[in-house]
Write a structure and sequence with these properties.
Elements (H helix, E strand, L loop, with lengths): L11 H9 L4 H9 L5 H8 L3 H13 L3 E7 L4 E6 L1 H4 L2 H14 L45
Amino acid sequence: MKHDELDGLYCSVARTWSVIGERWTMMVLRECFRGERRYDHFRSKLGVGSNVLNDRLRVLVAEEVLERVRYQDSPPRFEYRLTAKGADLYPVLLSLMSWGDKHKNPVPPVRLVHRRCGHAAQPRMTCAHCGEAVSWREMTAEFEPDAW
């Protein structure tokens, strides 16, 4: 199965991966969450080729993860801003970062700090009902019968 065929599957993971699963996509989003918006900044921070960056930005705009906004008329220049849909990917980025800190970096390169209290923050998944932290062992997947 080709990558672009994932969006046609009835699977949330496959459909999400069809948007963010290409190489460099999460790196572009990482820079967006750091406040970068401009093409030249993405190029210099990531060191990625213009053909790859153009394709990643095109897909993210088409999927409404980023919005392309003109900030200069002559010559026309654009920046890329996170949409609400794009902001919803922040927990995904944090989960990837947390995994990398645990399994790939003896010393994590970045420390997350909660702005309100000033202390180190550690992303975790919690139950929406009771607030208790949960892991995959404490979860079950219930399929919607009408969805199939």
